[in-house]
Hints:
Blueprint: H1 3-17, E1 33-40, E2 49-55, H2 65-74, E3 97-102, E4 105-110, H3 114-122, H4 124-127
Antiparallel strand pairs: 1-2, 1-3, 3-4
Amino acid sequence: MGLVGRVGLLLVLALAAGCGGTEAVGDDRAPRYDVTIVYWPTGASGESLQATLTCDPDGGTHPDPNGACDTLLENEDALEPVAGDVACTQIYGGDQVATITGAGVQASLSRTNGCEIARWDALADVLVLPDE
């Protein structure tokens, strides 16, 4: 969602919040996601890169929290492991591995077969971390 879309959404939410009710002012809700991303570019035995990411509100040490949160929210199903009864193409995509962990999230990602590559690709914007 671009800047114009976010501004429009915020305007709609602000108008809706002003319609009736006696709710307390302020936002005490927890972020939708509060996760740590660890990425091993050369495999689990190599050096790792790490970032934090919070979504709704977007923030953390991730280089692009807005883009990463958009990707995460649009591809939440990719956080779930591939079901054991699914046939996956035996294509090897590389040594890269990553984890996304936080409250209610425990995802391990790799590029070991077609199903895992599809999960990886769906979450690619979340997994992009700069070299430290």
